[in-house]
Amino acid sequence: MVKQMVAYVSTLVLLLITDSYSFVQFEHTCSALKQCTSNTENYFDKWADPKDTSDINYYNEHHSIHQEVFYPINLPLLPILFARSEYLPNGQCKEDSRLFFNELRNETLWAVQMFDSSSKYPDGILYGNTRHLGNFDECYNLQVDVRENSGNDKITGRYCLVDLQYQRKNASVSRNIVRKPFISDFDPKGTFWDAIEERGNPYRIRRYFLQLALCVPSACSAEDVETVLKSSIETINKNNNIEIQITVDKNFCQAAVEASNSVAGERIYW
């Protein structure tokens, strides 16, 4: 019962995949990457662009299991959303991001590595598991020569932590202290927002605040990541009874190439 509740909340409010259940099924029913990727073109192409999620007929046909409960909130995987976003500024960041997406569809190792190191499906939110950190080293150490495919010599990874805060729209939340630190203390037949929203209890983890990892090409800055995600999320905010805020701290958006340059500068200085 608890696992079902966690899956419900995660899928409803966390925005990382258009239909998490079908993607998990998609992964588990494939015995090898080759078999999976033979059918990924339609899957990724359909849901990569935020505008495509408005196609209700397609959604009803291919995602009927969750259409009544989960349709109001539907967003592609975070790394796919970023790479295919119409809000990416023209320049190297956009070129490298598009290349990443194309190479991901082609099963190219470096692109799969970038995708693999990003957060995808958060779990255990009701139990306070709000930090989903992906794999720092896998992203940070990524480096590939792409001279034949791009104007840039190399693509390297940038590991960013994306802070996501969400709440109901127009909701009157009581600030009276309710000392219920555990999910088992709440009425299981009540709304899940009771377990999510702030009630003034200083001992509870803020379940409405999430930290997610995103690996992008190092040509993309922290500002690029924040701007693109904010713009994409805005459509969700307008069309649903939920308000989502995205922030990306440049101090937590790191690339090895910048660290190397910094070390070189320090050596010259000293």
UniProtKB/TrEMBL annotation:
It comes from Ooceraea biroi (Clonal raider ant). The lineage of its organism: Eukaryota, Metazoa, Ecdysozoa, Arthropoda, Hexapoda. It comes from the Eukaryota. It holds the Pfam family NRF. Residues 1-22 form the signal peptide. This is Nose resistant-to-fluoxetine protein N-terminal domain-containing protein. Residues 90-255 form the Nose resistant-to-fluoxetine protein N-terminal domain. InterPro entries: Nose-resist-to-fluoxetine_N, O2_lipid_transport_reg. Keywords: Signal.
